[in-house]
Amino acid sequence: MSALTLRGLTVRRGACPVVDAVDLSVAPGEVVGLLGPNGAGKTTLMRGALGLIAADGVSSLAALPPRARARAAAWLPQNREIAWGLSVADLVALGRLPHGRGGTPADRAAIQGALAAMRLETFASRRATALSGGEQARVLIARALAQEAPLLMADEPIAGLDPAAQIATLELFAQLARDRRAVLTSLHDLNLAARHCTRLVLLDKGRKVADGAPRDVLSKTNLASVFRLDAALIETDAGLVIDPRGVLA
Ligand SMILES: Nc1ncnc2c1ncn2[C@@H]1O[C@H](COP(=O)(O)OP(=O)(O)OP(=O)(O)O)[C@@H](O)[C@H]1O
Q1: CA 45 to ligand 1 center in whole angstroms
Q2: Under-70 pLDDT residues of the chain
Q3: ABC transporter domain: from which residue to which, for each copy (predicted)?
Q4: How confident is the model at residue 85, as a pLDDT?
Q5: pTM to 2 decimals?
């Protein structure tokens, strides 16, 4: 059974569709990278899929009542602002809200597991608002992990993280997929997307223009037509490397 199914998902802003009749299915075991230039519709697609904004078409998630939806999908928005001066552990514990009143052994295990996964154990009693931007981003990822939902939807989760934390986060997503969970994540780093996602979906002006294996989606033609990039594609021992060399007119 798929973790998310979209059929003809369309979101209009004014008269214009900014997400235009997108069909998409994400299955357990997949890390699906959502790519596209600024304004392509990645955030809007995920918010429409979650039922956070009005959309036409079908989303298997948006069709669920709120509590069932919160158990079915964890959402990491692009906006990383932490407004409350909670401890890191208490903030991560908020991820358990869909499961009840909290405080059970399962809740404690999920919170500890999420803190460990994001290497935050030593920060547990620190005030989240007193952490650096990248540390706060890791706390918010931990909150989403603590939710233990079958699907994680993350909007540019590695933005602002240092290189090691970026790779560690994507390796963690791969581990979630090996545990038969599913991840849908928007990314701007094409090389990390190529290396760490099992599948890529490319959006351009709200439309899905490619969906498949990373090396098929990140073709020279797609890089040129969608990203306006003149890029060399280099095969290495570690896989495909994309070397952007210039911007096309
Ligand atoms: N509240 C809004 N009102 C009007 N237009 C909006 C609104 N939110 C987004 N848009 C427009 O919808 C389009 C898609 O925006 P979206 O944020 O989904 O893009 P994105 O692919 O996530 O971009 P980025 O990579 O910059 O985060 C953009 O043209 C944007 O200007």
Answers
A1: 10
A2: none
A3: 4-230
A4: 87
A5: 0.95
